[in-house]
Fold this sequence. Notes:
This protein is α/β, with parallel strands linked by helices. It is about 25% helix and about 25% strand. The chain has an eight-stranded mixed sheet. The chain has a five-stranded parallel sheet with strand order 3-2-5-7-8, sandwiched between helices. The chain has a three-stranded antiparallel sheet with strand order 1-18-17, with no helix packed on it. Helix 2 runs parallel beside helix 3 and helix 4 (about 100-115) crosses helix 5 (about 140-150). Pfam families: 2-Hacid_dh_C.
Amino acid sequence: MRAVTVDPSTLYCMGTSTDPVTVAGALRAHPVRVEPVAPGTPLGHRMVALAAHDLTDEELAETSAMTRGSWVHLVSSGPNYPHIPTLARNNLVTRSARAYAPSLSEYVITQHVLHCAEDPIDDAPKPFHRRNALVVGYGAFGRTIAETLTGLGARVTVVRPRCRTAHPFGSVAATPLEHLPNRFAHLMVVALPGIPEVVNFVDDALLRRLRLDGHLINPARSSPVDCDALLRWLADGTGRLTSDVETDDRAELLRPWIDKGRVTLTPHTAWRPWDGDPLYHRDWAAIYATGTFDRSTMRQQSLRIDPQQIAVDYLIP
């Protein structure tokens, strides 16, 4: 992707989840208006916040065709929506890679406490201290939840998908995944985005590292977890799954385990805090701060956003 020069006066919000009213309040320290805009509106050299999951396939196609030379910020962390590659050919497209990490981490902690409270030990469950936790993924969320669990006394091992290695959190010593001990983890947290490169990454081999009475928590997209392997793990033991974003087809396959109280599906709530703040504006503001104003006029009517100046995790793969 190449640098773009945009009008910095207005952030155009497309999709209900962009929540223009809340974001306008959060960005009041910036000289930026926040306005809703309908999908498919012609936008050239503008700043756009896009909730791609709120748009139909046809609306995304039209939006991709009608947007040129703009900075388009995806309010979600995952970029795998229809027509986003087309959008990225003619615009600079970024994503919300960091803003949701604290909220997702809070979700994990809450859900695991609730899980352990169902089977108390001497009426005083200790969900984390001296427990083994496996965090699969090491982006912003993976790092945040690994640090949080470590602070609560857990022994955390982090899996890096790209190199297929694991290491104790805080250590550089790497171990091939196949050398991890079987059934050692009390808790496994999936901290992976829903992108093609990690589809079915959590497979039979990785699930063998989770105890049969363990807890698997996935607060993000379901595609990184192999559904067949998951069903086999559930059938082999007494472990439980907590998942926040399952497809209808997968939810139907999990129905017998839901009925048995072994699977909890939450309605896509992990990413959003209690006060309803959509959060993505934090990552948007961080990227905005990398821009360079055209100072040829007193009003600074253009802003250059260069991907070379943006942290790589904000860019779509």
